Amino acid sequence: MFTSPFYQFAAAQAAGTIFILSTISTSSIEEVAEAAPDGIKWFQLYIYIDRNVTLNLIRRAERAGFKALVLTIDAPFFGDRRADVRNKFALPSHLRFANFEGDLSQRINTAKTGSGLNEYVNALFDASLSWDDVKWLKRTTTLPIILKGILTAEDARLAVESGVDGIIVSNHGARQIDGVPATIEVLPEISKAVGDQVEVYMDGGVTQGIDVLKALALGAKMVFFGRPMLWGLAYGGEKGASEILELMRREIDLAFALTGCASLKDITRDMVIHASYYSRL
């Protein structure tokens, strides 16, 4: 979220993968679009109390060629991130939320105590989100809408009823509430609940190629990851990010080969067995 997306976006474009830009990125919608105009761009969206702020973001994403909106529904306000509070989390002085001007851009750095990010989110994000807001968003744009933050079969079915185009099984990096289930654990029931009505994607805990194969076997159509890209960026900028993507590609190819899968259609659910199965042996 806080690193320059230019490096990772260039790497994603070169690899032919999708890049999702955060609402609170430190580089703007327009800057990212200009940096890699031919890449596949999705825009991650939070809904602000002031709906005009949200509408402005949507229109800018549309004009900049973004292909979908990813509405995050599991963070209308942030959980108790004690490390952030203890460390008085804020942006470095040379960075800002580049999609905004004035208070919306700098407010994270004005907190007197605790986490500046928590104060920003709790003051400006709409904590009263409901399924009606998803329907409002559908009426607002012609872009496909992907809901990020689904963790139960019930919510997955409600998402389908609301008319979205896809869902991302996600627990927000397990940073919202202690004890939240791993996404790979709930993926099977969710993919079973929605069937072919919408595409199901997954993120969370994906650090190697075999994780991707497992998610595909359990019903995901696509798998997203973020932390490995940050590791690559920290190590070597665009080159490091590209190396992470290439490493992931090699590991996926190896996982396919060692499980006898020549293509996606060869992957079956019985290739993945839950750990509880072995506890009964």
From TrEMBL:
Tell me its EC number(s), please: 1.1.3.15
* Full protein name: (S)-2-hydroxy-acid oxidase
Where in the sequence is the signal peptide annotated?
none
Species of origin reads Lasius platythorax
| SUPFAM superfamilies according to UniProt | FMN-linked oxidoreductases
Recorded catalytic activity of this chain's protein: a (2S)-2-hydroxycarboxylate + O2 = a 2-oxocarboxylate + H2O2; 2-hydroxyoctanoate + O2 = 2-oxooctanoate + H2O2
Q: Which UniProt keywords apply?
A: Oxidoreductase
FMN hydroxy acid dehydrogenase domain ranges (all copies) = 1-277
What family is this? Belongs to the FMN-dependent alpha-hydroxy acid dehydrogenase family.
